[in-house]
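In the design runs reported in the main text, the only information available to the sequence generator was the tokenized backbone. The following block is the verbatim input for one such run; it is reproduced so that readers can re-run the procedure and compare outputs position by position.
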């Protein structure tokens, strides 16, 4: 096969019309849509021909978010840390509020429990210090500047060098929220001499997040067969004597969620449901899978868990966003870790700290037309990435780079030979991945098993 000519692909990114040159990996001058992942991998890895390049042209755009935001709108969703959150923004006052309804993130770096669950963080915000390319984009992006916890002690990290930024569209908010430092000296350990089960200090400048202005609470509308694509992180490594920490683990499978909240799967165990899903108490706008007795523990992606016996209090939260008339199920696993030997009559040893998120999508084939658009989001690499999907090609950009210079790209195999709704991808280095979409949101898992990357992005413009 000879290298094909560059093809110019027009796409929209956050309401901005762009024109970039995308190289097609097809044979000769044929349609790149017919390229197989294997052929694409060979050519892209050898020739780098999928790398987006070329000039960009901005055109006038319409507003992509409400002109005024206030606390009357609440975005309900989940973070990559395995948190269930509610977000409110006031664009006039330049303030925000984030409620952590469920969280495995410790209040302080001195211990792993209690967590910042039940804590509300408030602070100030402004449009990004590094502006986005257009006024329309910038007007819908908010950089969090300060953070104050309601309990006066829970950590909510704001790193000026890499601040949390929320990108707001009509009905969705994504990007990043305040981070934290995770550290545990272990039983009998100190800073100088770690003890049993110690976890080295690791700082997360922000946690990726996706949240919705409207959610579905009628489970009969949610039940169905789904592709599940997700990413979790395990601070403990899943073993008290492990030398590996913050171990990633992923899922890429299909499961059926039944009308009664239970889950069935063709083989193996379900990762989406432990105890049957039930609507959370109050007006949370989400479902919960949790068994306080520990007899039906919430499932995990990894091969093992650190928990003593079945006494794990990890739980699942299912937030089903409603966007563009479509349901967008976002699944959060809230890990649990508590070790307390201070009272020898009531020893507590329960560590099931695997936490993270997953996106669910229908097990029906998608199309280039359904995927086409400009998106923005964040992921396990803790970067904000804009992307364009057009025909069978995807392009990545830094949304805060005014030059809009592409930073990478990938091809998509729309034959969906693995299973309907799962699009195989190949990036410029030849690494494969999987992409699923539901409504105006897509999730992309790619890279090698030891260090995978998982991103969730919401559409900014079609």
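Verbatim output:
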């Amino acid at each position: 096969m000879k290298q094909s000519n560059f093809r110019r692909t027009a796409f929209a990114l956050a309401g901005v019309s762009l024109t970039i040159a995308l190289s097609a990996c097809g044979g000769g001058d044929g349609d790149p849509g017919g390229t197989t992942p294997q052929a694409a991998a060979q050519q892209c890895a050898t020739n780098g021909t999928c790398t987006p390049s070329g000039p960009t042209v901005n055109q006038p755009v319409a507003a992509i978010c409400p002109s005024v935001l206030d606390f009357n709108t609440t975005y309900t969703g989940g973070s990559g840390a395995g948190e269930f959150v509610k977000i409110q923004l006031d664009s006039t006052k330049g303030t925000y509020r984030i409620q952590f309804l469920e969280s495995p993130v410790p209040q302080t770096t001195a211990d792993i429990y209690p967590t910042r669950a039940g804590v509300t963080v408030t602070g100030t915000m402004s449009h990004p210090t590094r502006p986005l390319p257009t006024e329309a984009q910038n007007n819908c992006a908010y950089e969090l500047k300060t953070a104050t916890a309601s309990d006066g002690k829970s950590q909510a990290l704001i790193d000026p060098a890499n601040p949390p930024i929320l990108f707001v569209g009509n009905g969705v908010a994504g990007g990043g929220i305040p981070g934290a430092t995770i550290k545990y000296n272990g039983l009998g350990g100190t800073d100088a001499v770690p003890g049993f089960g110690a976890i080295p200090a690791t700082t997360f400048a922000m946690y990726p997040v996706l949240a919705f202005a409207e959610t579905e609470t009628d489970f009969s509308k949610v039940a169905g067969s789904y592709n599940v694509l997700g990413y979790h992180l395990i601070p403990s490594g899943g073993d008290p004597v492990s030398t590996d920490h913050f171990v990633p683990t992923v899922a890429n499978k299909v499961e059926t969620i039944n009308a009664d909240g239970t889950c069935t799967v063709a083989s193996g165990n379900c990762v989406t449901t432990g105890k049957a899903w039930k609507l959370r108490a109050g007006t949370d706008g989400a479902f919960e899978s949790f068994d306080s007795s520990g007899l039906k523990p919430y499932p995990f992606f990894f091969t093992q868990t650190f928990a003593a016996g079945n006494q794990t209090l990890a739980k699942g939260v299912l937030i089903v966003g409603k966007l563009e008339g479509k349901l967008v199920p976002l699944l959060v696993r809230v890990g649990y870790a508590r070790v307390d030997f201070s009272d020898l009559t009531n020893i507590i040893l329960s560590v099931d700290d695997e936490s993270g998120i997953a996106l669910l999508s229908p097990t029906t084939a998608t199309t280039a037309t359904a995927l086409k658009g400009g998106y923005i989001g964040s992921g396990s690499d803790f970067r904000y990435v804009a992307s364009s999907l057009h025909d069978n090609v995807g392009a990545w950009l830094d949304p805060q780079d005014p030059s809009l210079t592409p930073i990478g790209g990938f091809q998509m195999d729309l034959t969906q030979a693995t299973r309907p709704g799962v699009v195989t991808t190949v990036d410029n280095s030849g690494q494969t991945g999987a992409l699923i979409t539901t409504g105006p949101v897509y999730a992309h898992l790619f890279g090698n098993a030891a260090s995978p990357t998982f991103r969730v992005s919401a559409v900014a413009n079609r």
